[in-house]
Amino acid sequence: MSPEIFIPFAVTAMPVxxxxxxxxxxxxxxxxxxxxxxxxxxKGVALPPALLEDAHPPYSERRRALVLISGGLGLxxxxxxxxxxxxxxxxxASLWGLGLLPLMTGLGYLASWWxxxxx
Length: 119
Known about the structure:
- With 119 residues, this protein is mainly alpha-helical.
- The chain is built from four helices and no strands.
């Protein structure tokens, strides 16, 4: 396999691999939790209602917003700082606008968090 094909394949496959590992880990956690609940029920122990509820991570729009804003700003700064040239002689710095998508998405999450605060 030539390096010209391997590098894009590895870059594309890495997020998929990370997602599969994360999903497998969560599946194993859920299965272990259910096995524990079944063992407790077989012993006749009264199960508290808190154990029967699925564990959901807390709603974290603010954290998600800050990660997206930081990622967008970082992408923009990286593209501006790269000294590379495209095929047409144009600088990679002209692609700085690609960072606007995560930046604006993060600002939307931040606005949603701010509007939904419960004081």
